[in-house]
Structure prediction request, 418 residues.
Amino acid sequence: MIDLRLLRENPDLIRHSQQLRGESSQAVDDLADADNAHREALQRFEALRAEQKQLGKRVSRSSGDEKTELLRRTKELSTEVKGAETVVTTAAAALRAAQMAVPNIVAEGVVPGGEDDFVVVRTVGETSVPQPCRDHLELGESLGAIDMERGAKTSGARFYYLTGVGALLQQALLNLALQQAVDTGFTPMIPPVLVRPEAMEGTGFLGAHASEVYHLPEEDLYLVGTSEVALASYHSREVLDLAQPKRYAAWSSCFRKEAGSYGKDTRGIIRVHQFDKIEMFSYCRPEVAGEEHQKLLGFEEDMLAKMEIPYRVIDTAAGDLGSSAARKFDCEAWVPSQQRYRELTSTSNCTTFQARRLAVRYRDDNGKPRTAATLNGTLATTRWIVAILENHQQPDGSVRLPKALQPFMGREVLEPVA
Prediction:
C-alpha cells in the first residue's frame, strides 16, 4: 500500500514508477482524487461534530425561545452528522480500494520493460550439454522418481507423484535448505496453507495474481501459492522490536492455478499446480532493507553452490515485478535439455508495501511507531529437482548427487530402475 504522505508530496515519483512498470498512471490520479475526497469528507464531519458538541453545551445553559431554537438546530445537526459520517465511511472504502490498485514504487536502478528485459548481474559455473542429454522427466521416470501419468489420472494435468528416490530427493533438498536457514539465524516455521482474504490481500496476491489463486468460497479461505502470505500475516497488527531483522524460514506445500500458462512447460514438473518450498521471510527497518535483500540473495546462492549447478543472477525489469515488489532478483539454473536458464529462486524487497497493508510496525530510536519493511526469498523448491537431475546425469542414465545431498540420501548416485 502506497504511503499517502508520499502521494501528496511527490505524486510524480509514483507516476514514474507506473511508467517503468508499463502501467497507466491513471491509478495514481484516481488515488489522489480519492485521498482528497476522503480528507474533505472527514473535515466536514469533524466540523459538524465540533458544532454539535458546542450546541450541547449551550442548550444546558439556555432557556425559553433560545433553547427551543437550539434544540431545533441540534436535531437538524444530528441528521447532518449521521449523513456526513456515512460519506466518510464510503470515502474511506473508496480510498482503500484506490490504494490497493497502485503497486509498490519501483526501486531506483530497476530497468523498464517486461519479462525479457532483465539485467544479468553475474553468471556462475560453466554450462554444458551432456551426451546423450535426457530431460528431467525421462531421467525421473527411469530412476523411479517421477510419475506424471498417475498424477494426471488422480488429479488432472500438471499434477504428479514423486516416488522412491524422487520423494527422498525432495526431502533431502528441503532438509538441507532448512538446516542452512537455521544455521544462519532463521526461525523455522510450518505455517498454515489456508489463509483468510485479508492475509492474501495484504501481501498483494488478490490483484493481478488473483486468477492464479485457489479459493474455497464456502469457507472464504485461500490456498497459498507461497508461504510468504502466512509469514507476512504472522505479525499483522503488531509492533515489533527490529533492532535486528526478524527472519523466518517456512516449509510448506504451495498451490497455483498457473492461469495463463496453457501450453507452457507442460512436460515434467517445471510448472505445476502443487509443489513444496522452503521460503525465507524477513521483517526489518526500511533503511536496511536493501542490505537485507542482498543477504537473502546470498543465502540463495549458497544453496545453489551446494547443488553444484551453473546459474545466473538477474535483476528483473520493472514490468516483471509483482505488485508488492520494489525490486526482485532471480537465480536461474542452467537446464541442459532446454539449453537455457530457468528460474529456481526469487527474492523480493517489498519495502513497506505489505507491512502498511497488514499494520506491521516497529518503534524507531525515538520510540515512535513506524511501518516495517518486508522481504522474501526462495531457498529451495520442488523445481530444483529438474536442474539437479539434468546437470548431474551420467551417460548410463544414472545421476550423481551433489556432495551436500549425499549424507541426507545415504548414497552418492541414483541408479535407473527401468
